[in-house]
């Protein structure tokens, strides 16, 4: 049977990303956790399974790195950008993760997990997915947003801003460069939008079509 072409991944605009990342407000543990989850998903381009599998030993705040285990258990080091670093640091402080554990009443084996649910257990894929969707609904993104859309957005925005495709491949943990090349079509569309909006001769080009 012939292969069915894979659809292009979706990507948010920068303004949509900014609105989403600003959604978690407050100084309670849940707000610190949600802020860190959103920053890491977008800033590091992680899959949802990679995010919920993170443990404390995988976080190197001094080196500004995350140790991530991708498909097939393949490890890779992912840079932790400044906003994500700040959000993870706040979550790991006494106001975030420690506050959740201090209220825990049951016995759990989640002491080494980075992200916890309200009961102090390692957060599940579904739990993290619902956090993303909840904040997406809050800022008007609705069904347009999934955790994987943040990964797509990370890759697309890096390519638009000139990142080498091989670097993006390493960041996302793609075994094959062909998986990463899917994002170049989105990059080209975004560059076209920027050109049409910003170049003084773009209006002439549009009229000539």
Mind explaining what this structure looks like?
This protein is mainly alpha-helical and 209 residues long. The protein has a single domain, classed as Intergrase catalytic core (hpI Integrase, Chain A). Helices cover 53% and strands 6% of the residues. Strands 1-2-3 form a 3-stranded antiparallel beta sheet, with no helix packed on it. Helix 2 crosses helix 7 (147-160) and helix 7 crosses helix 9 (177-198). The longest helix is centred in the last third of the chain and has 22 residues, at 177-198.
Pick out its properties:
single chain, 209 residues, mainly alpha, hpI Integrase, Chain A, 3-stranded antiparallel β-sheet, 3 strands, disordered N terminus
The appropriate CATH architecture is: Orthogonal Bundle
Find the CATH topology.
hpI Integrase, Chain A
Number of helices: 10
Q: Identify the CATH class.
A: Mainly Alpha
- What share of residues is helical? 40-55%
Distance between the termini: 38 Å
Low-confidence stretches: 1-5
* The CATH homology group name: Intergrase catalytic core
- Inertia-based shape: globular
Class from secondary-structure proportions? mainly alpha
Average pLDDT taken over every residue:
84
How much β-strand is present in the residues? 5-15%
């Amino acid at each position: 049977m012939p292969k069915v072409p894979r659809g292009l991944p979706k990507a948010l605009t920068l303004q949509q990303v900014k609105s989403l990342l600003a959604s978690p407000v407050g100084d309670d543990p849940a707000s610190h956790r949600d802020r860190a989850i959103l920053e890491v998903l977008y800033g590091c381009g992680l899959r949802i399974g990679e995010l919920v599998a993170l443990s404390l030993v995988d976080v190197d705040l001094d080196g500004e790195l995350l140790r991530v285990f991708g498909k097939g258990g393949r490890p890779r080091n992912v840079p932790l950008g400044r906003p994500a670093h700040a959000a993870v640091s706040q979550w790991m402080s006494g106001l975030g993760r420690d506050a959740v554990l201090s209220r825990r009443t049951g016995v759990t084996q989640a002491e080494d997990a980075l992200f916890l649910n309200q009961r102090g257990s390692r957060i599940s894929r579904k739990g993290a997915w619902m956090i993303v969707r909840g904040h997406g609904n809050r800022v008007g993104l609705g069904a347009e947003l999934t955790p994987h859309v943040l990964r797509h957005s990370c890759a697309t925005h890096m390519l638009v801003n000139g990142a080498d495709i091989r670097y993006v491949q390493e960041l996302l943990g793609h075994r094959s460069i062909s998986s990463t090349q899917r994002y170049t079509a989105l990059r080209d569309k975004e560059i076209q939008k920027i050109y049409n909006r910003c170049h003084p001769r773009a209006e002439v080009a549009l009229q000539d079509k």
